[in-house]
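Audit log entry. Action: structure prediction of a protein-small molecule complex. Ligand: flavin mononucleotide. The ligand was supplied as SMILES and no pocket hint was given, so placement is left entirely to the predictor. Protonation state taken as written. Sequence taken verbatim from the request; no trimming, no tag removal. Recorded inputs:
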Amino acid sequence: MWYENRITQDLHIKYPIVQAGMAGGVTTPELVAAVSNTGALGTLGAGYMSPEQMEESIQKIKQLTNNPFGVNLFIPETPDVSEEEIEQANEWLRPFREELNISEIPKVNQPSTSLFEKQMEIVIKERIPVCSFTFGMPTKEMVNELKKADVTVIGTATTVKEAIANEENGMDMVVVQGSEAGGHRGTFIGSFAEAMIGTMALVPQTVDHVDIPVIAAGGIMDGRGVLAALVLGAEAVQMGTAFVTSLESGVAEQHKEAILNSHEDQSVVTSSFSGKPARGIRNEFITKMAKYENKLPKYPIQNTLTKPIRSEAGKQNRPEWMSLWCGQNPRSSKQQSAGEMISDIISQVDDMVNNKEAR
Ligand SMILES: Cc1cc2nc3c(=O)[nH]c(=O)nc-3n(C[C@H](O)[C@H](O)[C@H](O)COP(=O)(O)O)c2cc1C
């Protein structure tokens, strides 16, 4: 069958479809479990979660599915950011805070690696079968520790060079993230701008240069995208935006609406929300902050500074100031359950491989 390959075999799943771990509330336990229950792989986006939140979500997922699921984590970054840079950024953010009646300026703690270490301990303790990473790679020691605990370890790459680095680091599989992808760029070697390679170009070049299985991500929203990725040599796809508008997704309604009504030319890659380039729907916050983009504090500092603005904008129904992460294929988005979406995708691919008219 078209869906049987190294990835479905190694991950003990039926279909080579991975729901992206999306931090920030998208990946509710209900979404992760619904996806895993179809035979695809649900993933908890735990990047921003405290150990307590992570434990709670994992327990809930385990109650809702007996099938494998994954956890996605961020490799921590500890940039040197001066007080002056923070003060300047706060000054630029002041008009948004005033308009939203936010009186408190978030306290910036020196970024550390301790949260990540605790998150890794939970993955091992809870015997999570799959752990994926973005923003870099875990150390070889960590990879070995995960593998000893029978965790399949998946990295993220935005260039062939990064995919090779993942393979050399001992990762079992690699997600290649094309420039169409919604959310943060996973680039960790070289410049973000140079690593903007489309999925169609990145997948075949990567499969020609690594032996580990490749998972294609970026702009894949339906059966056509899944089959195309498999033809290019990927052994699975990772889809993000498609699941953001699913019924089980935990994002604000304004975010879902924005994607459902958005077009291919309306997203941009911006650092203004977090200090790290990410693709989202262009809105007033992005256009107003564009002139400061190169001077903002690096991730995760800028992310901390804008957090109350983003969440208050959601509560006050001001989508123009929210981070509306979205890939370049939003016209294909639908509001339906994750289960229905996956079953539609499977029948679309079935029809295409059996030469029937594709829906
Ligand atoms: C709302 C949103 C949040 C995301 N958060 C994460 C994350 O926490 N970790 C991660 O590895 N990728 C994250 N991504 C990126 C996805 O892994 C994937 O690369 C991307 O969604 C693929 O492109 P698509 O959105 O066109 O499907 C996120 C994407 C979106 C849309």
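Audit: result stored. The pocket of flavin mononucleotide is lined by residues 20-23, 26, 45, 47, 72, 134, 156, 177, 180-183, 217-220, 238-242, 244, 325, 327, 329 (CB under 6 Å). The mean pLDDT is 97.
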